[in-house]
Structure formats: C-alpha cells, structure tokens
Amino acid sequence: MKTSNKILLSGFLVAFVVTLIFMFYIKSNINEIKGDGQIITETRQVAGFAGIKIKNRIKVKYIQDSKQKLIVTADNNLMELIKTEVKDDTLNIYTSKNYSFNDTIIVEISSNKINFINLSQKSEFKGLNKISGDTITFNLNSCSKLNADINFTCLNCNAISKSIVNLSGNVETLKLKNNSKSKFSANNLIVKKCFIEAKMHSKSEVNVSKELNVEAQGKSKIKYSGNPDLKGIDIKNGASLIKNKKQE
User: Fold this and answer.
1) pLDDT tens across 28-75, in order?
2) CA distances from 160 to 18, 120, 156, 179, 201 (A)
3) pTM of the prediction?
C-alpha cells in the first residue's frame, strides 16, 4: 500500500472514531433528564441492611446510629427516578434513568452497622461520625470517592479506575488492592498489619506500626509511615516503596 493511501486510511479511521464518540455523547445528553430546580426532601422507609451499593454519581452521607433512617434530597422531577431498594441484605441506591451532570442527588443514611460499601460510576460516600465494627469491605471503581473515620478489626479495600479513598481512625489489619490510577490516602489511619497489592500508576499512603507486606508493579507508588517490619516485599516494573520521613 502506498504511503498516501495509508495516510488517507488512517485519517478515515480517526474521523470515524471521532464521529462515533460524538454521536454517543449527543445521544447521552438527549436522553438525560434535567432537574427542574425545585429541591425537595423525602424520607423513605427501607428494610434493615448490612451493606450499601451506590451508583450513578449519587452522594451518600452516613451516620452510624441505633436508629435507622433514609432521607433523599433532589430535584422534584428526579425524585421518582431515585431507587432505594433492599435486596439480599444490601441497600441499593441508583437511578433508573440518566440525569444531568449539573444536578446533585444526596442520600442521608443512618444505621446501627455496616459491613460493606460498593461505589461505582462517580458515586461518593462520606461518613459523618466514626464508623465501628469487626470487618468492613470497601469496593470502589469508576472515579468514585470515599471519606470516613473508622475503627475496625479488619478492613478490606479494593480501589480501581481513578477512585479516591481518604481514611482516618484505627484498624488491626488492612488488606488493600489499589489499581488503575486510584489513590488511597490513610496517613491518619493507624494500622498494625498491612498487606498491599498495587498496580498501574496507583498511589497508596499508609501508617503501619507492626508489619507491612507489599506487592507492587506498573509504576505504582507506596508511601508508608511508622516503623513496621517489612515482609514479603516484591517491587518491580517501575513501582516504588518509600518511607515517609515527614511523619517521624
């Protein structure tokens, strides 16, 4: 194939891809529902639950309390799109249709316990008081965010696709999987034993007192504070493990 033909073919392919992306963007915006600007609050009754799944850019504010409640704040015309359903001991919070990026949906929740939190599609979770228990699991993907002050025996955290985790408090054992440019910030979370698996440009900051185990690759970066015993350290493919001297 001649060079000129290759250039023409490459240009055609680029134009085709750009057109597809533009058409998808237009279709998404046409189908989304815009809020009417009339902000209302609705209290809902739901069955008891042990975990929460949040999607569709919804922001959750959580309080651990003996009295369970759920309050939704959103535009009046969006309220019926917001689903808060308990299935298999899990509170599912999502929207049945797309809504404008200029609109915000806030769900305030209180319950006496929580064992896991799953966040996706740019959703957010913020703990408003200290959250305590035995074991808790955080799963985040697609640019989701979590901010909490916790006190647990064991924390399992899985973060991927540019998600952000900010934690403070205390845990006995932390098992962290951090991937795909996600950021885990926990300088103010005191951990005794820590196990980290980091990949693909992720960033992790931890504060460990007794034992630190690390498997890191793909230019991931790990900073640690404290004076733990380093065990099972496997660093490769441009990854790094650095002691944070500022915390000493």
Assistant:
1) 445 799 999 999 999 999 999 999 999 999 999 999 999 999 999 999
2) 27, 10, 14, 5, 11
3) 0.88
